[in-house]
Design goal:
Blueprint lengths: L13 E5 L1 H9 L6 H8 L3 E5 L1 H11 L8 H14 L1 E2 L19 H10 L3 E3 L3 H6 L3 H4 L3 E3 L1 H5 L4
Parallel strand pairs: 1-2, 1-4, 2-3, 4-5
Helix pairs in contact: 3-4
Length: about 150
């Protein structure tokens, strides 16, 4: 089974896709186990890529009552993350068909990784991680947990 191989060492500005749960872990929950990953993103060693529908999902999820984030904090996280991202429009002519996610809300992150040339999609979603083993995906980009990707950082 083919798996996507990340360049070693990782080049500065390596394009990566962060799904919503990864963004929340890094900037809302400030997961202490991801300090090196967050520092690499903030220093520009990694270039997050996104598109409007992905950023819209982030804004929506930040408002969830269970997170207890005041509106100012929600706006700060969303605006700061948007400013870090290179925005990529959806492709009118995709380079390949992707397998479908069982959760259709996750499909946009796979499409973004494919269309942006990202080297990795960072997620903790078990169903998305499982799709990373599919040859059509594995040939184009890696799907990794933030923790596993962080272990690849110098």
């Amino acid at each position: 089974m083919a798996t996507h191989t990340l360049p070693s060492p990782l080049p500065h500005g390596l394009p990566v896709v962060l799904d919503t749960n990864a963004v929340l872990s890094l900037w809302m929950f400030e997961d202490p186990g991801l300090v090196r990953l967050r520092a690499a993103l903030e220093a520009g060693a990694l270039q997050p890529v996104s598109r409007e529908d992905c950023l819209g999902e982030l804004q929506r999820v930040l408002t969830y009552v269970q997170f207890g984030q005041p509106p100012e904090r929600q706006a700060e996280i969303a605006q700061t993350y948007r400013a870090r991202c290179q925005l990529v429009p959806p492709s009118a002519t995709p380079s390949c068909e992707l397998p479908s996610c069982l959760d259709q809300d996750d499909q946009k992150f796979l499409e973004l990784a494919r269309d942006s040339g990202a080297q990795a999609l960072l997620t903790r979603d078990k169903l998305v991680l499982k799709l990373g083993r599919r040859p059509v995906i594995a040939a184009r980009f890696a799907i990794l947990t933030p923790e596993r990707f962080q272990n690849l950082l110098p």
